[in-house]
Structure formats: structure tokens, C-alpha cells
Specification:
Number of strands: 0
Order of helices and strands: HHHHHHHHHHHH
Strand content: under 5%
Number of domains: 1
Distance between the termini: 25 Å
Shape: globular
Radius of gyration: 18 Å
Helix content: over 70%
Largest sheet: none
Length: 219
């Protein structure tokens, strides 16, 4: 998820350095997709969809197929951070018309289609996670991912692949809590609640239920 921010920064630096000015549609799209991600993760669903549609419209004004596919891919990854697993139909609609190898690799990565996956074509922050074959190391690897959204996306894949132990769930819950991202936080707290219930840990259950109520009340 970090690559959108990197593109945005490079565009701004080019403008400040007297280089060619980035077109308005591109700047608008980058700004709007960042707003989308924040609203989506905070559980502001209507606002999130509004920002996403506006971002699509900005790219659509330039008739850019690859960028449109990438926006849909970003949306799927952001929703998956809250463990919303669904076919990325918007991306697939445009992918058949031609997308980059990097975008297709990322699509396969978040979808758990790892057979023959070229980790070298993934954003750098995911490569160690994709190369790991020891689920017990997942939590440690996730902690080294600086970008909190990327950390949550990787955690979601661990959940999808049934490789998320207690430490992995804790890393994900902490990442969401640190950012005040209510949607993924609520999901992970409820997973931890289930886990505590299975262990019969009443003290932990009470604490988790109090935290869940705080998040639900804030919504």
C-alpha cells in the first residue's frame, strides 16, 4: 500500500524542483484514494465510497485503464485489511485489458494464490513475508513492516491461509489500535475474544469485551 504514497511524494518533489508538473487528474486521484483508505479503515463507509468514486472519476477523465485497475486493487487490499475477503471484480474487469506484472503479482499475493509467485515483483515491504514458510515467524516479520496498512494486509493473508497465531492477531490489533482504525480493530478484537473464550481466560475476555464496546460506541 506504500507505493501510492511514494508516487505522490515523487510527483510533489518533481513539482517543487521545477520539473514537469503532474497532471491534475493524477494529483486528484492520489489525494482521493488516500482519503478513501482513511475513511474505509475508520468505518466511515459512505464517505469512503464517495472518495473512491471520485478517485475513479479523476482517472476516468484521462481514460487510463491500468490506473483504474490499480485503484480497484487498492480498494480490495484496503477492505481486506479488515478481513473482508471477496473477489476483486473491479480489478479483474480491467486486468484482462492489460496491467503491469507488478499489479498482477500483488493481486495474486493478496488473494493467497502463491504458487509460482515472483516475490521480487511485490512491493518491497511484503517480500520477506511472502518468502517465509514458517508460520511461527509471521508475527516477527509483520512487526518489521513499517507501514501499518501494509502490516494489516499481510496479517489478513496470514488469517486467510490459516497461519495467524495469537501473536499475529496481536500485531494486527496493535497496528489498527495505534492508528485509530476502528474497522480492522473491531474484527481483530473479536477474533481475540473468540480465542480467549476457547482458552477460558475470563480476565482477558472481560478486557477484550470492554475494548470492543469502546470501539462499537465510537461508531
Amino acid at each position: 500500500m506504500k507505493y501510492v504514497l511514494l508516487v505522490s511524494l515523487s510527483l510533489l518533489l518533481a513539482a517543487c524542483g521545477g520539473g514537469p508538473k503532474a497532471p491534475d487528474w493524477k494529483l486528484d486521484s492520489i489525494s482521493l484514494i488516500e482519503r478513501y483508505k482513511k475513511a474505509e479503515l475508520k468505518g466511515q463507509n459512505k464517505l469512503a465510497e464517495s472518495h473512491f468514486e471520485q478517485s475513479l472519476a479523476a482517472v476516468g477523465s484521462a481514460a487510463r485503464i491500468e490506473e483504474t485497475a490499480r485503484l480497484h486493487l487498492t480498494r480490495c487490499a484496503t477492505r481486506q485489511a479488515s478481513l473482508s475477503f471477496e473477489p476483486c471484480s473491479g480489478y479483474l474487469e480491467y486486468a484482462k485489458l492489460g496491467v503491469s506484472a507488478e499489479d498482477e503479482t500483488y493481486h495474486r499475493f493478496i488473494g493467497g494464490q502463491w504458487d509460482g509467485l515472483d516475490a521480487g515483483k511485490l512491493p518491497a515491504q511484503y517480500r520477506d513475508f511472502a518468502a517465509n514458510r514458517e508460520p511461527a515467524r509471521n508475527a516477527g516479520i509483520l512487526q518489521k513492516i513499517d507501514d501499518p496498512l501494509s502490516r494489516l494486509v499481510a496479517a489478513s493473508i496470514a488469517v486467510m491461509r490459516k497461519q495467524a497465531d495469537a501473536a499475529t492477531l496481536q500485531v494486527a490489533a496493535d497496528a489498527a489500535s495505534d492508528q485509530g482504525w476502528r474497522k480492522p480493530l473491531l474484527v481483530y478484537l473479536k477474533l481475540q475474544e473468540t480465542q480467549a473464550g476457547l482458552k477460558g481466560d475470563q480476565a482477558e475476555l472481560e478486557k477484550l469485551r470492554a475494548r470492543i464496546k469502546l470501539v462499537e460506541d465510537s461508531l
